[in-house]
Amino acid sequence: MPNIPPQFGIFLFIVAAAVLPLVFASGYQTFQLTMVVIYALSVLGKNLVTGFGGQVSLGQGAFYAVGAYTAAVLMDQWDVPYWATLPIAAITSGLVGLMLGLPALRLGGLYLALVTFALAISVPQLLKYKAFEGWTGGVQGIVVSKPDAPFNLPISSDSWIYLFSLAVGVVFFLAITNLVNSRIGRALKAIRDQPLAAEAMGVELARYKTLTFGVGAMVTGIGGALSAIAVGFVSPDSFTIALSLTLFVGMVVGGASSISGAIYGALFIQFIPNIAEEISKAIPGVVYGVILIAVMFFAPGGLAGVIANQLRRLRAARVVGTGRAPS
Amino acid sequence: MEGVLHQIVSGIATGGIYASIALALVMIFLATHHINFAQGEMAMFSTYIALTLLQLGLPYWAAFLATLVFSFVMGVILQRILLEPLANAPVLASVGAFLGLLLIFNNVAGWLFSYTLKPFPSPFGVGDPMFGGMFSRHELGSTVVTMAVLLSVWAFFRFTRLGLAMRGAAYNPVSSRLVGVPVGRMLALGWGLAAGIGAIAGMMVAPVVFLDPNMMGGVLLYAFAGALLGGITSPLGAVVGGVMMGVIENLAGAYVVGTELKLTTALVIIVLVLVVKPSGLFGKALASRV
């Protein structure tokens, strides 16, 4: 087999992801795919914090909510164009992440899980709070109008939002891939696997942990902002602890310490509940719970880990088949 | 002034419930260094079992006892089949398993018993408030029950051989095993006890907040705050912290932030404790051996 650079495969995948839905998907299916991109981005933020940084955050739904509300409030109150809300949403969610992460990161481990869990539980209440009602719309939430395609492009609003989200998603996936393959990424892995040794080698624990937590919150916040644009509506009850748990399930099922795992996880949390819900309203939660425990026991690397193992086995089999010694 | 006093007294009543859950959390934390995020949902599930037994016609205290036995067995089984294998797994694995449990209990409860609010009877009956309007009958009764539970847990750990063995297994599993303590069985026993304590808390809080699958969310958060405030390494601290959280909740609700930010109050206290004194009021600073 000739050597095709892996970048080419990724390029093909992106082109296919951009073109195929425009041709084959209905409006609702396109919306579902947009949600997959949004979830993938949000889970990616979580993977960075937990899978690569080794810090268990259970409150990623809160940063998603901050991003979504920032975008919605900006569009609603000041008529900011939808694309311009993204950088601002990135900043606010990143800052909130830093503010909450700082005290807990100092202590690490379970304390961070506790604080972020507490945050996730209290988010809907904060969003409903009367003092912010002028901005957040209280229990009613905010309705924003979905943007149309620019330059008179002959595609529907749903398709345009899909392409827009996909473009944002691609940029951040590439950026995070570069980040984890860089010096910073190696420092993170060192901190995750051997914090003491890493510190002794001169890696500044506090700085890197805080940085990852902030960046993770930011990436998830951008996912949230895109969701406000795509759904056209935000309300407190969309951002309960259930959202944080969903993102957690997405991370674990996809594979926490993998970039592509975020995509598998997003596909899972977007489509499995729809299928399961046909049996009973309570089923998706039960399925999530059972799968979560099963993954912890049988496939700690998630889907990405399973796929990587299979590929390795295939490759090994091929090497044996051609009579060459595996190197 | 009387208003303040009433808020404090009724805060102690809910505080007893927070203290029970906080104690259950701390017991498991001391033994395994895990935080059981499903503690609240387990208690909620036990409360549904109690309601089912009551609907079958059992007298209250018989249903109460049967629920305790059920919860104890449930706790032991969960520890044996689910958590024992994860004892030395990374934090993410144990947190994942606990969240899985949380999701399963919450949704199975919704599935079996529906998501509608259900009234839960109080064994202490309805009647006029007592002591010049300070206590409702249920508040007084549930305070007595939770305090009795906390006292007997303390006595059990302090005065019985089994309690001593359990403490040994938690503090120093290796040495305990060497002197013949079956450490695994002790941990399972601890899980059973914690589940039982949680069940009592669930049955005591359900008449106040009504029973639904999400009943324990707020309670668990206040119990977390209580456990941290008292010091997550100290059972006494968990109890004191839990009771304090009940009083803080009432005072803050009545005079400072209103009831709308109840959960946020707990979050703020958690963050404050972690910033100011992470070891809590009674806890030891956690140090890890290098």
What is the fold's blueprint, element by element?
The complex is a heterodimer of chains A (327) and B (290).
Chain A: H1 6-24, H2 27-52, H3 60-78, H4 82-107, H5 110-128, H6 133-136, E1 142-143, H7 157-180, H8 183-193, H9 195-200, H10 205-231, E2 233-234, H11 241-254, H12 261-277, H13 283-298, H14 302-321
Antiparallel strand pairs in A: 1-2
Chain B: H1 2-32, H2 39-55, H3 60-83, H4 91-113, H5 137-159, H6 161-171, H7 173-178, H8 183-209, H9 216-230, H10 235-256, H11 262-276
Helix pairs in contact in B: 1-5, 1-8, 1-9, 1-10, 2-3, 2-4, 2-8, 2-9, 3-8, 5-6, 5-8, 6-8, 9-10, 9-11
Task: Give a structural overview.
With 327 residues, chain A is mainly α. Chain A has a domain at 13-240. Chain A has helices at residues 6-24, 27-52, 60-78, 82-107, 110-128, 133-136, 157-180, 183-193, 195-200, 205-231, 241-254, 261-277, 283-298, 302-321, and strands spanning 142-143, 233-234. Chain A has a two-stranded antiparallel ribbon. The longest helix of chain A is centred in the middle third of the chain and has 27 residues, at 205-231. Chain A is built from 14 helices and 2 strands; from the N terminus they run ααααααβααααβαααα. Chain B has 290 residues and is mainly alpha-helical. Chain B has a single domain (2-276), classed as ABC transporter involved in vitamin B12 uptake, BtuC, CATH 1.10.3470. Helix content of chain B is 74%, strand content 0%. The longest helix of chain B is centred in the N-terminal third of the chain and has 31 residues, at 2-32. The mean pLDDT of chain B is 85. Classes of the chains: A mainly alpha (327), B mainly alpha (290). Chains A and B meet through helix 4, helix 5, helix 11 and helix 13 of A and helix 4, helix 9 and helix 11 of B.
